Target: Lipopolysaccharide export system ATP-binding protein LptB
Amino acid sequence: MTPDLMEAGAQRLARAHGIPATGQTEAGGRSAPFARPVKTGEVDTTHGRILYLEDVHVSFDGFKAINGLNLDIAPGELRCIIGPNGAGKTTMMDIITGKTRPDRGTVFFGSTIDLLHYSEPEIAALGIGRKFQKPTVFEELSVFENLELALAADKRVWSSLRFSLTGEQKDRLAEVLHTIHLSDALTRRAGDLSHGQKQWLEIGMLLMQEPKLLLLDEPVAGMTDEETERTAELFLRLKGRHSLMVVEHDMHFIRAISEKVTVLCDGSVLAEGTLDQVQADERVIEVYLGR
Ligand SMILES: Nc1ncnc2c1ncn2[C@@H]1O[C@H](COP(=O)(O)OP(=O)(O)OP(=O)(O)O)[C@@H](O)[C@H]1O
Model:
């Protein structure tokens, strides 16, 4: 969930249920209230890139968590990222979303937007949505209310308790509900959904904001086999219209969705190619698959 959405939900819950609004972000910090200084516009992908990282470095107390990382993702691509624990996968997503600043390197969204100049809420507003491993839906609200809250319309509507959806917004909501397999659960309390359904709902909340790039951290962890299968179908439907970066350890899931796989190790790219290619790579077997 994006920081500004967290804030909006907290405010809305506070008004509706008399619950204190914390405005706490996933990062543990306070989000900027209703701050959307960057207008969502077109991302220049004429050079065939939605995301471009070059020679990125980050050290924590002298430890090189990201060490000369290069990455290039095409518009509409579904890229899988795998690698051993501590490889730098989360840190990479933290850098893309503005949570962590690199010591040096280049991080571009499309050909023209230098993400290092933007804050976390600004990057979300630019069209980069992030899904953390643990679902963070508003449990006390219904499925419908969660999605309604996430609409990418003028966020000033959040200042009023009730607002009417336009016809276009209703259509979008119905389309997202269908995409995330929750059309029959419209009025259900989000807290009563299964783990997998909560994950889909949060993905739906991101989709309501029409992100151009979605970063998904271990989306099928804790899901049943059937939920995992349906999530694979969902991601395959999303690619093309959105670009997706999926970090996962579940190799069956990776096989179901992958085109190109990037293997991270020690903060840089160890191998890249189809799943069959990287699975046959001796270095990958050594550090990750052969464990
Ligand atoms: N804020 C921090 N301070 C110190 N060290 C950090 C910090 N964040 C990450 N690290 C270290 O950087 C390395 C990369 O961590 P990261 O969480 O990015 O790996 P990962 O590939 O996501 O691992 P996992 O698969 O276990 O989630 C790890 O050794 C981690 O301990």
